[in-house]
Amino acid sequence: MDQHITYWRRNIFLFLTSQFLTGITSMIVQYAIIWYLTKKTGSATILSFATILGMLPMVLLSPFVGPLVDHWNKKGLLIVPDCVAALFAIILSVSGVVFHVFPLWLIFISLLMRSIAQTFQMPTIQAVMPTMVPEKEITRANGQLGMVQSANMIIAPALGAVLFAMIPMKFLILLDVLGAIIGIAILMFVTIPKNEKIDEALHVLHNTKVGVQQLFTNKGLWYITLIGAFFTLFYMPCASMYPLMTLSYFHGTVGQAGLIEAVYSAGMLVGGTIIGVFGKWSNRMIPVIAAFFVIGITTGLSGVLPGNQTGFVWFVVLNALAGLATPYFNTLLMAMIQQSYPPKELGRILGVLNSLLSLTGPLGLIFAGPLADAIGVEQLFIIAGISAVISGIVAWLIPVVKNYDRNLQSRLALQKVPKREQNSN
User: Which residues form the Major facilitator superfamily (MFS) profile domain (predicted)?
Assistant: First the structure.
């Protein structure tokens, strides 16, 4: 027993380490590309287009990627995206060396391909996590994954800024290649359990339809998905305007804009740490719903702060609290989804769910710029805050949502009881 515990803990440690290394190098390069676009063009339209390119593959491809994740080799699905990102990093670097410039079309293609690769990678990570740890450790393992992702979000902007100032862009991009090589090398020592063999042929559209039906028939999770999509629609415009809020409304500096991002990510790291260490609740929907209210109140209050440096100090505090609450929604909900379906079905479910949750993001981004120009960037924060609070209220008032985890745990406990005992009862 002790040997088994040691094995899976070592296995998950190597897995998280590989994801940390590939994740941080990829994020540094991603920041570098966005900063290059900012310095080269100074165009909000270009930056918005780049952001949308990063989101569209998730929206359009996720329902079809899910069934592929269920059938294809999981380790391969983790390795190939890193190879794709590394390949386009090499292409961009060669372009910079040979032509001394990075054509916008090549940058956009690179961003699009990186996003497509990530669309395969994220559902795969979410699908393999419950197969690598004991069921009772799923919430804690997801919290640890959230800690890794939060650490990347804290370290990458700061380290990326230093490297961006020290290393020419054409060489900095190659950091993605180094991260991919090290991350893949570590992943080779990770054991990812295989799902049950599925005898029928792979029919992507059929399995996608089945995924939609399975999600729709699970009313609690279906309503949670709709609430999340509503929240994303109004929150995404606000999220895209953080730099403008700091620079324009609070009259701050680029360094202060970076500070806000780091503080928010640090809050996420603390929240993920709390879940990872103490993540056991009898009804995990309660902290999920509470997270809606915390994010809503802190975001809404940010929009009514005075537009000066005193207001900015409070903006920092509010963002730390919002960051602290964010993992409760992401991590706990993911743990519940992973326990709601067998591992062999998770890919198609997560594909559909991720697509629905992401669908409203680009819609919000399309209107973010014109709306901020028309009514003021701070008003977007008030709108986002109100929408988050409404999402929390709706989730609390719908019993099948509020009690989803309690019902899920009862069902799982019943499944563990031998049939003979169930019949005797």
Answer: 221-425
The answer for residues whose C-beta is within 8 angstroms of residue 272's C-beta and 6 or more apart is 143, 144, 146, 147, 149, 150, 327, 331
Of the candidates 255, 260, 270, 267, the residue with the CA atom closest to the CA atom of residue 239: 260
| Distance separating alpha carbons of residues 78 and 375, to the nearest angstrom | 43
Average pLDDT, the chain: 77
In a domain, 198, yes or no: no
Indicate left, alpha or beta for 42 from its phi (over 0: left) and psi (-120 to 50: alpha).
Answer: left
Most distant pair of Cα atoms in the chain: their distance? 78
Domain around 222:
2-190+203-416
Residue 301 lies in a domain: yes
Whole-number Å distance between alpha carbons of 425 and 420: 9
For 46, phi then psi, to 5°, come to: -60, -45
Query: Residue 132: what residue type?
Result: M
Residue that wins the pLDDT comparison between 351 and 24 = 24
CATH number at residue 123: 1.20.1250.20
What pLDDT is attached to residue 394?
94
Rounded mean pLDDT, 141-163 = 70
* Count of domains for the chain: 1
pLDDT at 405: 84
